[in-house]
């Protein structure tokens, strides 16, 4: 295999495809851009996932979606034709809730992020506040006196940052104050994705919002999304996932392929993401600098494997 160039599955013979299939037992796949777009299944991909399962592959869905709980993602998946167990969904909000439960967390959480984070934490019995609009009213000094000086910082044991379309200076101010008033305050994030729907748009991702806050508090948040290999260490330690026998499928080189690389998995990039092809070309042009972004395999759509196998 030439690691400077991914192998295009569409160009392999049936015998080579059979060999490729024999190279893994477990599949971890990203969701948005691989399985569906905006909650609509990508053509023939549900059939492709069913085919992989019928061949005995163990399939997990792994997403950086920080605006839906694991249960909501599972409901989307099953509604549009994916046969997957809820326990096979690896998602940041769930992972954060489990992390806090494992620490016997009893304080409140301040959320710079979505309502889904609050719902996910509530389902785990964890109290939180913060989602929704929050703007600075009046002068900065008025706001500091009324909303920051009076903050009950001891009650807040964690700040979680996720995708937040209501991200504001006021939220940054509150979050910074909670994090820095108490050295024990946990600082967590759902993911580090910096931009969405590029190149059509440049929608700031969680990583962009987080960078502002990290700069202010001079601390790095612990993150619960790809490319952090920690999110599937339990599966690896339990023996359910053997890294050398696992294939990671994704649509973003710098997130999904890097995650696969970090975990020691084989990687397959699909061309159905908003900028998969554009990004892959960029990555290949700079291949000597960041070989960890180069996938082992490429296929225009995961649905294509129904024709190749
Ligand atoms: Mg994706």
Key features of this structure:
309 residues; alpha/beta; Rossmann fold; 2 domains; 7-stranded parallel β-sheet; 5-stranded parallel β-sheet; 16 strands; binds magnesium ion
Structural features, described:
With 309 residues, this protein is α/β, with parallel strands linked by helices. It folds into two domains: 7-64 and 227-308, 3-Layer(aba) Sandwich (Rossmann fold), CATH 3.40.50.1000; 93-223, 3-Layer(aba) Sandwich (Rossmann fold). The chain has twelve helices and 16 strands. The strands form four sheets. It has a seven-stranded parallel sheet, sandwiched between helices. Strands 8-7-9-10-13 form a five-stranded parallel sheet, with helices on both faces. The longest helix has 13 residues, at 169-181. The model has no long low-confidence stretch (mean pLDDT 95). Magnesium ion is lined by residues 30, 32-34, 251-252, 273. Magnesium ion binds next to loops.
Outline the fold blueprint:
Blueprint: E1 7-8, H1 14-21, E2 26-29, E3 36-37, E4 40-41, H2 45-54, E5 58-62, H3 70-79, E6 89-90, H4 92-102, E7 108-112, H5 115-123, E8 128-129, H6 140-148, E9 156-161, H7 169-181, E10 186-189, E11 195-196, E12 203-204, H8 206-217, E13 222-223, H9 233-237, E14 246-250, H10 253-263, E15 266-270, H11 276-285, E16 297-299, H12 305-308
Parallel strand pairs: 1-16, 2-5, 2-14, 5-6, 7-8, 7-9, 9-10, 10-13, 14-15, 15-16
Antiparallel strand pairs: 3-4, 11-12
Helix pairs in contact: 4-5, 7-8
Bound molecules: magnesium ion.
Magnesium ion is lined by residues 30, 32-34, 251-252, 273.
């Amino acid at each position: 295999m030439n690691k400077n160039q991914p192998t295009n599955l569409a160009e392999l013979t049936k015998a080579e495809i059979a060999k490729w299939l024999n190279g893994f037992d477990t599949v971890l796949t990203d969701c948005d851009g691989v399985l569906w777009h905006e909650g609509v299944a990508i053509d023939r991909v549900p059939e492709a996932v069913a085919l992989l399962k019928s061949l005995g592959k163990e399939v997990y869905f792994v997403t950086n979606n920080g605006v839906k709980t694991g249960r909501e993602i599972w409901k989307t998946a099953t509604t549009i034709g994916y046969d997957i167990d809820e326990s096979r969904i690896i998602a940041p909000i769930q992972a954060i809730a489990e992390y806090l439960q494992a620490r016997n967390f009893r304080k409140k959480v301040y959320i710079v992020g979505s309502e889904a984070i609050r719902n996910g934490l509530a389902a785990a019995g964890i109290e939180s506040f913060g989602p929704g609009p929050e703007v600075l009213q009046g002068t900065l000094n008025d706001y500091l006196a009324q909303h920051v000086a009076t903050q009950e910082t001891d009650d807040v044991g964690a700040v979680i940052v996720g995708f937040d379309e209501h991200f504001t200076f006021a939220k940054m101010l509150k979050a910074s104050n909670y994090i820095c008033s108490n050295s024990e305050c946990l600082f967590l994030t759902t993911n580090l994705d910096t931009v969405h729907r590029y190149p059509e748009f440049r929608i700031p991702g969680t990583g962009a919002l987080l960078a502002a806050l990290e700069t202010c508090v001079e601390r790095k948040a612990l993150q619960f999304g790809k490319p952090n290999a920690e999110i599937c260490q339990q599966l690896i330690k339990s023996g359910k996932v053997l890294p050398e026998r696992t294939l990671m499928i994704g649509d973003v080189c710098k997130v999904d392929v890097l995650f696969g690389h970090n975990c020691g998995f084989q990687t397959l990039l699909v061309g159905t993401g908003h900028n998969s092809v554009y990004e892959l070309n960029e990555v290949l042009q700079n291949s000597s600098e960041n070989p960890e972004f180069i996938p082992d395999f490429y296929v225009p759509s995961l649905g294509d494997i129904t024709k190749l196998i």
